[in-house]
Amino acid sequence: MFSPEIDYTGSDFSASIKSMNPSFLDGGLTGIFIGSYLQSVTPRLSLGLEAVWQRAAVGYGPEHAVSYAARYKGDDWIASAQLLAQGGVQTSYWRRLTDKVEAGVDANLQFAGLGLGGAGGMMGGGRKEGVATLGAKYDFRASSFRAQVDSQGKLGCLLEKRVAPPVQVTFAGELDHVKNTAKIGLAVSIEAAGDEVMEQQEKANSAPPPPF
């Protein structure tokens, strides 16, 4: 897997270009290319689009699709909506409840059976369904806990704990009530940072918690 990506942020816009496994070795351009652009219309409202172009092999014609998005940012909340190219709508709402608690809800509605580039696309399918997901995040002193549940009976949680300035441990779990399956995972990440950054993190971890 080879995936180069370029991001650029201007004064009132952001743009990115990403590709997955681009190649000219087969006598033509193949791979997946994704370009996105988000423009601020007002200080709170932003509009954008995302274009996808892909070609699995030289013998196949390229497929393409365009999705449109809108985002509105309040003082402590953000609402967004996206019109998907495969025939669907995705909406989300995020809000900061307190300094330590964040919550959000996401709804994904598939109302048409159109795939990427039309019928028969790799992202296609004749599904007509909707999924709603509710999630929350709580920040502790040196860790954070995330949990979410969706309308299909799937419950997930994630705990990130920093045991030392360069070491972080992540526990993840998922329980699917419909399929009667469960998953659990553990990850350890080690960050390479300078002495100054590590000293700042040590001071932050050793500082007393703020009074409630």
TrEMBL record:
* InterPro entries documented for this protein: Porin_dom_sf, Porin_Euk/Tom40, Tom40
Keyword terms of this UniProt record = Membrane, Mitochondrion, Mitochondrion outer membrane, Protein transport, Receptor, Transmembrane, Transmembrane beta strand, Transport
Q: Name one GO molecular function term.
A: protein transmembrane transporter activity
Q: Name one Pfam family in it.
A: Porin_3
Report which superkingdom the organism of origin falls in.
Eukaryota
| A GO CC term attached to the entry | mitochondrial outer membrane
Subcellular location per the Swiss-Prot or TrEMBL entry: Mitochondrion outer membrane
Its GO biological process annotations read: protein import into mitochondrial matrix
Membrane topology per the entry is: Multi-pass membrane protein
By sequence similarity, the record places it as follows: Belongs to the Tom40 family.
Q: What is this protein called?
A: Mitochondrial import receptor subunit tom40
**Source species of the chain:** Cryomyces minteri
